[in-house]
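Let's study my pick:
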Amino acid sequence: MKKPTIGVLALQGAVREHIQMLETCGARGVALKYPAELNLCQGIIIPGGESTTIGKLMVACGFLDEVRDASRAGIPVYGTCAGLIMMAQRIAEGDQPLLGLMDITARRNAFGRQVDSFETDLVIEDIAEKPRTFRAVFIRAPWIDEVGNGVRILGEFGGKVVMARQDGMLVSAFHPELTGDERIHRYFLKMVEEAR
């Protein structure tokens, strides 16, 4: 079967690192610079960055409605860090453009500022391969305050939800693309395969 093409929204964040991880996993990663390129993709990744800026750029570049429509048409979407915030239906504070796809409430910069960034080992549900833990990199990270009925919690840290899935949507408050561990990207590619 032809390897899937995964588009990484190239407005801000670790675009190159996501593409490298996808290529390592056997997929084709492309940097999405124009909404028309979404037609080439079987999956979409929204990387980290600053969520208010990403939201404004998505509106200005015409991505907000197009990504929303692609997700509702069944294209799997994975949001990391600021991507988690963008995918939320609600944010706990502030006002900014959101995709509003997942039934979650996100809290921006929940773990603190840039100087409060950290790494820790997490147990991630559905990732059974050894090692059992995943080294998670949190950079000015959000967390999920509330989840709706259709949302599965996949990872928690300090009693806070930091990874979740709802149908073809996946979010993590941390950055798996900044590690050498491919397991979460492979998990997302399995979601893409199931959707195909």
Summary: The chain is about 25% helix and 30% strand. Helices lie at 15-24, 51-60, 63-72, 82-87, 183-195.
